[in-house]
Amino acid sequence: MSNNNIVHHTHEVSKEQRSAIKNQKPCILWFTGLSGSGKSTIANAVEVELNKLNKHTCLLDGDNIRLGLNKGLSFSDEDRIENIRRIGEVTKLFIDSGIIVLTAFISPFIKDRRFVRDLIEGNEFIEIFIDTPLDVCESRDSKGLYKKARNGEIPSFTGVSSPYEAPLEPEIHILNQNRDINEIANEIITYLQNKGYTSAENCLLDTINIKDIKDIALTAGTAIMKIYEKDFKIEYKDDKSPLTEADLKSNEIICESLQKLYPSIPILSEENKEVEYSQRKCWEYYWCIDPIDGTKEFIKKNGEFTVNIALIYKNTPVLGVVYAPAIDAMYYAKKGYGAFKNSEQLPLSNNDNLYIIVASKSHMSDETRKFIDNIKTIKGKELISIGSSLKLCLVAEGKADIYPRLAPTMEWDTAAAHAIVLESGKQVIQYESQEPVVYNKKNLLNPWFIVK
Question: Which helix (H) or strand (E) holds 93?
Answer without folding.
Answer: helix 77-96
